[in-house]
Amino acid sequence: MRLFYAVFLPEEVKRALVEAQERVARYKGWREVAPHHLHVTLLFLGERSEEDLEDLLALGHRLGRLHPPFTARIRGTGYFPNEGTPRVWFAKAEGEGFALLAQRLREGVREFLGEEALLAGGDKPFKPHITLARRKAPAPRVPPVVFGLEWPVTEFALVRSELKPKGPVYTILEKFPLRGDHGREQEESAGKRSQDH
């Protein structure tokens, strides 16, 4: 199974991004990402076995309990690579929670499955983004788009990606609510113990 962890977007944010995608439709050579596929990748895992799935689900639930919800923002667009001929046009995602959650996922995958499981994601610095379009042929750069989007991130997901001739098909295997209640549980447990004495 080809797997990754991701944050998907609420409908109102997707609608705004789809409007931006309409601009790229004017330029031949670009292929827009389907609205229901718009997401922020937290960690790409590549091909994993069925045996790994239980650990990856357990990690998602554990981090959901640890990590509080956070606010995400989208301000503008960019390209990968930034220099030369671009292959990807994306919206820049902001929010301190993205980097922390991605780091915790990397640490957890290393703990559960070992360093080898992180190789598929490469060693490039984590840059949260939402891919809007991919270049399928020589294509011009799309003019920048400025957004003022903001939304609460309250969950993330483990996703299976199946590569098809017309593009990848994503299936959400499980969602993990961000409850961030681990610290509170510890405090309540400590308080209860002190009352018992």
From TrEMBL:
<keyword id="KW-0378">Hydrolase</keyword>
<dbReference type="GO" id="GO:0004113">
    <property type="term" value="F:2',3'-cyclic-nucleotide 3'-phosphodiesterase activity"/>
</dbReference>
<dbReference type="GO" id="GO:0008664">
    <property type="term" value="F:RNA 2',3'-cyclic 3'-phosphodiesterase activity"/>
</dbReference>
<feature type="active site" description="Proton acceptor">
    <location>
        <position position="129"/>
    </location>
</feature>
<protein>
    <recommendedName>
        <fullName>RNA 2',3'-cyclic phosphodiesterase</fullName>
        <ecNumber>3.1.4.58</ecNumber>
    </recommendedName>
</protein>
<dbReference type="InterPro" id="IPR009097">
    <property type="entry name" value="Cyclic_Pdiesterase"/>
</dbReference>
<comment type="similarity">
    <text>Belongs to the 2H phosphoesterase superfamily. ThpR family.</text>
</comment>
<dbReference type="Pfam" id="PF13563">
    <property type="entry name" value="2_5_RNA_ligase2"/>
</dbReference>
<feature type="short sequence motif" description="HXTX 1">
    <location>
        <begin position="39"/>
        <end position="42"/>
    </location>
</feature>
<comment type="function">
    <text>Hydrolyzes RNA 2',3'-cyclic phosphodiester to an RNA 2'-phosphomonoester.</text>
</comment>
<dbReference type="InterPro" id="IPR004175">
    <property type="entry name" value="RNA_CPDase"/>
</dbReference>
<feature type="short sequence motif" description="HXTX 2">
    <location>
        <begin position="129"/>
        <end position="132"/>
    </location>
</feature>
<feature type="active site" description="Proton donor">
    <location>
        <position position="39"/>
    </location>
</feature>
